[in-house]
Amino acid sequence: MISKNVLVTGGAGYIGSHACKALKAAGYTPIAYDNCSTGWEEAVKFGPLVKADLMDQAALKETFERYQPIAIMHFAALSQVGESMQEPGRYWRENVTGALNLVEAAVEAKCFNFVFSSTCATYGDQDNVVLDEDSVQLPINAYGASKKAIEGILQDFGTANGLRHMIFRYFNVAGADPDAEVGEFHQPETHLIPLMLDAVDGKRDALTIFGTDYDTADGTCIRDYVHVCDLVDAHVLGLKWLLDGKGNRIFNLGTGDGFSVREVINHSRAITNREVPYVEGARRAGDCTKLVSGSNRAVSELGWEPKRSNLHAMISDAWRWHQNVANHYKK
Ligand code: UFG
Questions:
Q1: What is the pLDDT of residues 46-99, one digit of tens each?
Q2: pTM above 0.85?
Q3: Which CATH superfamily, name and number, covers 192-223+256-327?
Q4: Whose CA is nearest to atom 36 of ligand 1?
Q5: Is the CB of 262 within 6 Å of ligand 1?
Q6: How far apart are CA 226 and CA 222, in angstroms?
Q7: Are 234 and 253 in contact (CB under 8 A)?
């Protein structure tokens, strides 16, 4: 029988665990490869876990030999913009070397289908520029720069070794599995919506709005939020695209609608029936004013149909998960 195994690096993490669920639903077997430094063993519910590091080349080789995956979805990475400004060396070393080790192991094992989790942070902060897949990439933080470098690795191994790649540049991923089997839980948490929900139910002090003097209508940053379930659906479509031999392609994953930090806060009242305690603080280093996708290529070419990427569904699903998380992840 032909393997339907897919190697999912970061499969114990937020997006990776949702990808594993979507892959299983689509008839694949997700093999989660994760060192569990920021992910959760309890999140690996849809296939086996290989608990290992991308720096461990022997473990990578053994994993390819054992599971013979038909493809890779690569999510494992350090992913905090602010942290990347403080510790750029870690971002360059772990993200870029980890990806390089993975790509080399894949080529060695003749596994040539690679779906990569990239980011809109590779575009940087470009005023009044429509961000589509052909936009120039000018990252302003080490996180975005490390992801841009990995895109380059994939292109080079494509040319030299025939590695087929699908690059997804995400905008802001939010929400959780509506069944609350998996969801977002970082320690420490850095993302707006989970921090806001923590503040709403008293798990932490007030949310700090990072900057109220941006050049936007209400002074706060604007982001394009996409539901994690829609995002991973695109990955399954991307996998099929590669397996069908349609070739290398880059897709933005965002809705094209931007919301400010204040709009997100205001919307949450309708869902939680509570006020968000917040204070207005200074800008966070590395933040762009506005990041909104200007492309619908994923919809027109890939057949992607975002279903839950509206603020209401994203905050509602995150809130449901937030109230359940203690029953799932215990560290
Ligand atoms: N924000 C606050 N207070 C907080 C946390 C966030 O005001 O306590 C603001 C940020 O300044 C930003 C917005 O809320 O304007 C969203 O911040 P997140 O930390 O939730 O997300 P980022 O926009 O920093 O990061 C996300 C993804 C990255 C991606 C990046 C592009 O997590 O993978 O968008 O900038 F690269």
A1: 999 999 999 999 999 999 999 999 999 999 999 998 899 999 999 999 999 999
A2: yes
A3: UDP-galactose 4-epimerase, domain 1 (3.90.25.10)
A4: 121
A5: no
A6: 13
A7: yes
CB-facing half-sphere around the CA of 127: CA atoms within 13 A: 3
67, 91, 123, 143: the catalytic one is 143
Pocket lining: 196 vs ligand 1, CB cutoff 6 Å:
no
Hey, what amino acid is at 306?
Answer: P
C-alpha angle with apex 135: 77 to 262, nearest 5 degrees?
A: 65
* Residue whose token pair is 């961000």: 131
The number of the ligand 1 atom at minimal distance from the alpha carbon of 144 is: 36
pLDDT tens digit sequence for 309-321: 999 999 999 999 9
Atom index in ligand 1 nearest the CA of residue 261 equals 14
Domain ranges within the chain, ordered by starting residue: 5-174+224-253, 192-223+256-327
Would you say domain 5-174+224-253 falls under CATH 3.40.50.720? yes
